[in-house]
Amino acid sequence: MSGFNELVYDGVPFIQKSHIELARLTQSLTWPRIILLVTTYTILYTLTLAIYRLFLSPLASFPGPFLAKITHWYEFYYNVVHAGKYYEKIRELHDKYGPVVRVTPDEIHINEPSAYNDIFVVGATRKTNAYPRFSNGTGFEDMTAISTSHDAHRRLRVPLDKLFVRNSILRIESRVADRVARLCDRLSSYQETGEVVNLTNALSSLTTDIISSVIFEEPSDYLGDPDFNSEWYETLKQGGRNVFVFKHLPWIIGALGKPLIRYFVTHVTRWTIWDEKARREVLLIRKRPSDGSKTREKTTVLDHLVHSDLVEKEFGSGGFPRLAQLIQQAGAHNVSHTLGTMVTYLLMSPEKLRPLQKELELIWSEYDGKSTAPSWIELEKAPYLSAVVAEGLRMAIGGMNRTPRVFPNDEIKICGWLIPRGEC
Ligand code: HEM
Ligand SMILES: *[C@@H]1O[C@H](CO)[C@@H](O)[C@H](O)[C@H]1NC(C)=O
Ligand SMILES: *[C@@H]1O[C@H](CO)[C@@H](O)[C@H](O)[C@H]1NC(C)=O
Ligand SMILES: *[C@@H]1O[C@H](CO)[C@@H](O)[C@H](O)[C@H]1NC(C)=O
């Protein structure tokens, strides 16, 4: 048998034969057939994926519900159909399966407080990446995180960390105090009017103005808005509702919605204002000598960052607006939510509120008739106030969104389970 013979099939050279087959196939490709083909392939692909996830994945041995192991639609069902309720279901799953549960095809959920310190570790202990399920591939990576990879994250943290150490905070104390005083003035103006103040918006305006005074030379004045910018916060709230949809359908957003959503975000909402502001200020700061910038009384986050080439190296030329935007959003909403939580719980339990008021009245009474108010250094020594702040931070659970971690190099042992390294 020569090699040539093998190329002949039914007496027709193979090449020709395949042409004929192709022609026949094309003729016979009717819509029902196409649908049949696509369906068959989809089913085969899904089956293969399910089998991989069930039996071959590094997470195959972890306990969890069948559906959660094979598909992200399980989480989708609880989070999108039942509006963000997967966390409740996860609690039930822990009751059933124990402290370590596979909650999606590629995530392990751990319900063991002592494991916290094994998972969220400092860079020196172990390399850690964030697992960017929420924004990955949506084009919103830049708006939701500094950087998810361990090394890039550490590089950027260095200049940012310096801005939030004790001494830097002391330097911006007057900016914070000014804005708190402004809020108090506004709240007093409501006294005896019978009007209801929307504290969510009032506190959001407070924190937005504070953080913006830390980043920008032209800070925002949301506290000056008659209804504390309620319209803008309503827009943000609606956006927040879609987080779970974003998280589950990144491919849809990537394919269809991204250009549209980007347009909406950058043209219709106020993101643009912050962006333009950052761009303007970067130009301004570049014209100043660098040492003058950092020691100025009104020095800002941008002052400190603009003269280092780190940001643009990491993010490209849009780096500053992007970083300013991120710090602005991150510094506003989580803080106002925490403050709101404290106020709500205190108002609901007067027996907890009374001792706080007494403590503060005592501190303030020493300032009667003086033009200054107690400083942070003094206030942080007040035991009950400190306890209220600590408890507020504990109670304000933040976004109902997991912040998963990936260890690219290390396996770690938790509750008797060996968690595999890397992404699955
Ligand atoms: C009550 C106050 C705050 C709470 C409860 C809070 C909570 C959080 C949480 C839970 C994360 C996610 C971390 C993760 O994925 O592991 C985060 C990230 C972040 N927060 Fe805050 N935060 C607060 C205040 C602030 C302030 C005042 C700023 C800025 C001045 C800020 C800037 C950021 C930034 C930039 C990130 C992203 C970090 C990154 O990607 O590495 N936060 N915050
Ligand atoms: C994030 O997206 C990139 C490319 O778009 C992909 O290579 C990577 O695997 C994704 N990561 C996760 C955790 O989905
Ligand atoms: C306060 O304002 C927010 C918009 O930011 C709105 O969603 C919320 O329902 C308002 N609360 C009340 C009690 O009206
Ligand atoms: C606010 O807190 C939540 C969790 O509490 C976190 O997922 C989110 O990243 C924080 N927001 C920003 C912009 O950092």
From TrEMBL:
Q: Which GO terms describe its molecular function?
A: heme binding; iron ion binding; monooxygenase activity; oxidoreductase activity, acting on paired donors, with incorporation or reduction of molecular oxygen
InterPro entries membership: Cyt_P450, Cyt_P450_sf, Cytochrome_P450_monoxygenase
- Iron-sulfur keyword on record: no
Q: Does the keyword GTP-binding apply?
A: no
Q: What are the entry keywords?
A: Heme, Iron, Membrane, Metal-binding, Transmembrane, Transmembrane helix
Q: Where are the transmembrane segments?
A: 34-55
Query: Which family does the record assign?
Result: Belongs to the cytochrome P450 family.
**What's this protein's name?**
Cytochrome P450
